[in-house]
Design brief:
9 helices; disordered N terminus; homodimer; about 30% strand; 6-stranded antiparallel beta sheet; alpha+beta; 9-stranded mixed beta sheet
Chain lengths: ~325, ~325
Amino acid sequence: MVDDRPLDPATVVGVSQPTDRPAEGHPGILAVVEFDPTTGTATGHRLADPRAPQLTVTDLAATRGDGVFESISVTNGRTQALEAHLLRFAHSAAMLDLPAPDVAIWYAAVEETAARLYAATSASEGLVKIVISRGIEGGTVPTGWAYAFVSPDFTAARRDGIRIALLDRGYRHDVASTSPWLLAGAKTLSYAVNRAVVREAQRRGADDVLFTSSDGYLLEGAVSNLLIKRGDELITPRTDLGILTGTTQVDLFRWAEEAGYRIGYELLTPGDLESAEAAWLVSSGRHVAPIRAVDGVERPIDAERTAAMNQFLHDRPE
Amino acid sequence: MVDDRPLDPATVVGVSQPTDRPAEGHPGILAVVEFDPTTGTATGHRLADPRAPQLTVTDLAATRGDGVFESISVTNGRTQALEAHLLRFAHSAAMLDLPAPDVAIWYAAVEETAARLYAATSASEGLVKIVISRGIEGGTVPTGWAYAFVSPDFTAARRDGIRIALLDRGYRHDVASTSPWLLAGAKTLSYAVNRAVVREAQRRGADDVLFTSSDGYLLEGAVSNLLIKRGDELITPRTDLGILTGTTQVDLFRWAEEAGYRIGYELLTPGDLESAEAAWLVSSGRHVAPIRAVDGVERPIDAERTAAMNQFLHDRPE
């Protein structure tokens, strides 16, 4: 729910921009989640300055990528799929043996930062990143924060599409069940590879990546899910492949069923992508980006259907 | 080289502990590497308080594990294998398309923090962790620091040995050549898996892990290298398997050759470990820890040889 109380800028610690400042210049709104130093239990949150240092160099977020995160879409001030994101946040935390996040406290931190960002910028699209780490090495108190910021402009990707490269993720399709210690399917802070693959895709003349398993199945993007259209079916890769269950993909399946599609979770191969009538990478930030080329081979995009899906995502009620 | 100038505690920003305070209570010495905000070039370092926040929540070290690190052993104030660590640091940075670290500036930061820690604590063993990240998301200026702290007490592991569990790392042994975008062999900040495997080992009643490739070869520990003794040979896994070249292992091979061993880099299997007369995990912090059990099966440790290797490491000249 949007916090629509009148906002007193002076109460927004460290964020002194006037509300009519261009959105892209806004530093964002930060809420630091507070924990009881003795028990490690979350007790609430406080606003803080995102431009000022907040983390020590001994925080395991910074030294080991030892924590988990989520990125929640905010359209016209409304947080999207927040319950689904908080569920996945808790699931990731459990995979890393982190304490279960206190849902009410995280919910409040997300809603307040989202509402304050919208009040300050009127941005039609924002994102709230929530992060919990194992805290300072050797301690027992997590570190956590929610950071709301104005979205980058994804217009071109949504309209013109993206070129992708298929890259081997190195793991078999059954890695999540055979080797859970590899954390496949957890949204961790250890995303150096997710960033390296995008640089590799760029070296290949592409914009983004679609991971494949070492035994040849399609998995997910670096921070997105795959969706393909085949006749009256919308299909996404099975969720037991060590990939993330897409919060945006799940919402789109709701749209798809209302629009008369059959939906499905399958083991997909590069051949399925090649023969699909349309294909997309979908995510919380960029929403629906049609795939216009795979490994340099151009393919048609479905502009009308893409626009309909993006409109649906933008107009979702809270 | 140790900086042996008389230390004025007042100049050590934020570190006010008297020098006779127990080593384990010392907060460590932090040097933040400074970069030109326009060019991103390193310009020097400044001492800072390791207990105070130094990093923003938008630093890619904290949000994506997008950076690299090294941990350098300091024995009686002498930094060990520093050139080898700085070389590996640069190699890791190159694998992540990070700017090449300025060796002279990092060298000075390591030496100063190590010397100040020794002057403040007289600790016989310390570590200096150096970290460089891609900096704040969207920017072009890295973040970097060197943090010296007193080592944990590794006496028991060195004397009594460690129990290890073999865990599949999920990648084939040739992953570094087939899929360089997976960063296998780079020492990145994305170490959530390296920590998860130790928790998994503990669940199995072990202390540490030895990774295997998905096709069955022995790789490395979570933060260590494997060494086995076979007759008059000391053998470590080949360095082209997507593992780190061990700075401690390389120093021990120097010792081994002086002591009359033949040294070798090989493709090793669990059978080779089982039949080895002795086996160790070796690393910058813990030095040489004999393996006393593999997946619950006890094996003999070579106490005398282990002690000799640890003595050699401790007494290394700078």
